[in-house]
Backbone:
């Protein structure tokens, strides 16, 4: 908690209103919230099935895949960004094909930011959901199957409600990680105000010139994310 | 979540404060060291904070300095000048500060952290960095402005971005970059990776990356020449060593190393 207190103490409270209304701040905040939410969506769509594969099926090489899933946790995000460039960049393995076939490139776009954030945040979701799946009793699904439910129905009506808290917790972690993402984003998506400049990037660049501006931006990010997370937690935990 | 954010902030702090503490472990195969710039009793450790663009030259100069002053051990911490200036004003233990622009030096001198007046020891100029062989045939600043080219510039907050803006304004050319990079090396690596067609970087950086990158000179860069100031710091642990190093950097021997790297004499 101490570093947070440090921010509060050093914050330039007198000039706060005018600093908050600077045009760049809102754009960066909006972009951060948008991309973190989209990245969480991508992680949910790809991560829940992956977690189900890891937690419920016994395919060969499962341990290896699980280890691979956690790689972005270990990799320095900047390296993650370079790795993404090597794959999705204009000269990358997939990127070159995308560029020549569709004339479409990912780096330096908002989509690129989402990709970078999803890459880094995915393990948080997969690990949470897989843990929840392992804790959930598979016999409920079997019971549903004996009662004639298809696999999909059983997953949707039985498994998902069982693991919902795990999915929610994973999504929150994932969102939080995506919101704070810096290294992979600035490396893969670059830094352009309004398009790829998220709050952490704006903070870093502000730090180059004006410590007070960096503190203000950081405070905004802290306040907004704490508010959102507190609100979501109350909703999901059923506490009012 | 709070913990997560604090981690992010802590990491940012680490990023800013750590720089890259690369020691001057050059093989130092250069000729006989002159006794120039040596000061009596300047023994012990010497910490120099220097702009990232000085990395290659200062590693060499550090070795020469150690040869000229036996018993002195120089440690360099390279990074963005603005970040280094912030470290100094926050009380980072250092003896000498070499910045890539007078503006970043001013941050340190305004805070009263310098001992004496900063001296300009080299100048650096911008060039257009293009992939080796210049496949897109970009030969002028005006060509960079064409919409079909992807261009990287440094963000205006850092010296190379400020210099780029100055050159573009002087030439009344408007370039819309796809990205504004956080430092000159990041802009250069986007060219190396082929993600952009051109970037404005310092001549010295283009020269250091000559294996992958060509540097195209352009006349407008004369409007945006960057002075590099150096100064001994007030809180130096080794004040005599600090002033000896500042003097040494301005000797012909050190200036030759800097010229070879692509810097210009002040």
Residues:
């Amino acid at each position: 908690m101490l570093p947070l207190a440090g921010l509060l103490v050093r914050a330039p409270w007198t000039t706060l209103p005018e600093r908050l209304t600077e045009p760049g701040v809102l754009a960066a905040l909006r972009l951060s919230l948008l991309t973190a939410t989209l990245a969480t969506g991508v992680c949910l769509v790809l991560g829940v099935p992956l977690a189900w594969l890891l937690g419920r099926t016994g395919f060969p090489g499962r341990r290896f895949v699980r280890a691979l899933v956690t790689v972005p946790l270990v990799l320095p995000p900047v390296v993650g960004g370079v790795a993404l460039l090597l794959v999705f960049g204009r000269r990358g393995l997939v990127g070159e094909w995308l560029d020549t076939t569709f004339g479409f490139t990912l780096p330096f776009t908002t989509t690129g930011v989402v990709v970078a954030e999803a890459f880094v945040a995915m393990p948080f979701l997969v690990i949470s959901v897989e843990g929840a799946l392992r804790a959930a009793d598979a016999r409920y699904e079997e019971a549903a199957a004996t009662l004639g439910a298809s696999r999909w129905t059983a997953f949707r009506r039985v498994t998902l409600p069982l693991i919902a808290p795990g999915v929610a917790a994973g999504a929150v972690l994932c969102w939080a990680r995506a919101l704070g993402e810096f290294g992979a984003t600035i490396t893969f998506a670059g830094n352009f105000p309004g398009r790829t400049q998220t709050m952490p990037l704006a903070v870093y660049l502000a730090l180059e010139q004006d410590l007070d501006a960096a503190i203000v931006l950081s405070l905004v990010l802290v306040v907004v994310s704490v508010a959102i997370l507190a609100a979501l937690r109350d909703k999901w935990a059923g506490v009012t | 979540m709070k913990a997560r954010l604090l981690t992010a902030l802590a990491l940012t702090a680490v990023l800013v404060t750590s720089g890259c503490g690369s020691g001057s472990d050059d093989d130092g195969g250069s000729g006989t060291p002159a006794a120039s710039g040596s000061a009596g009793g300047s023994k012990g450790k010497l910490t120099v904070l220097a702009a990232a663009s000085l990395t290659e030259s200062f590693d060499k100069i550090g070795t020469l300095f150690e040869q000229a002053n036996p018993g002195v051990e120089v440690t360099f911490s390279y990074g963005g000048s603005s970040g280094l200036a912030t470290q100094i004003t926050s009380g980072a233990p250092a003896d000498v500060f070499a910045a890539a622009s007078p503006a970043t030096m001013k941050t340190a001198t305004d805070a009263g952290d310098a001992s004496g007046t900063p001296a300009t020891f080299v100048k650096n100029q911008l060039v257009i960095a293009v992939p080796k062989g210049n496949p897109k045939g970009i030969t002028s600043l005006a060509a960079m402005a064409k919409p079909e080219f992807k261009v990287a510039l440094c963000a205006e907050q850092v010296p190379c971005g400020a210099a780029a803006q100055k050159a573009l304004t002087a030439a009344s050319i408007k370039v819309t970059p796809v990205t504004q990079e956080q430092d000159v090396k990041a802009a250069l690596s986007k060219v190396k990776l082929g993600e952009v067609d051109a970037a404005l970087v310092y001549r010295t950086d283009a020269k250091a990356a000559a294996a992958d990158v060509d540097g195209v000179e352009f006349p407008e860069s004369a409007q945006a020449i960057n002075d590099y100031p150096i100064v001994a710091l007030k809180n130096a642990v080794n004040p005599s060593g600090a002033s000896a190093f500042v003097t040494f950097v301005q000797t012909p021997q050190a200036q030759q190393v800097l010229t070879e790297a692509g810097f210009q004499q002040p």
About this structure: The two ends of chain B are 51 Å apart (CA to CA). Confidence is low (pLDDT under 50) at residues 5-41 of chain B. The first helix of chain B runs from residue 2 to 18.
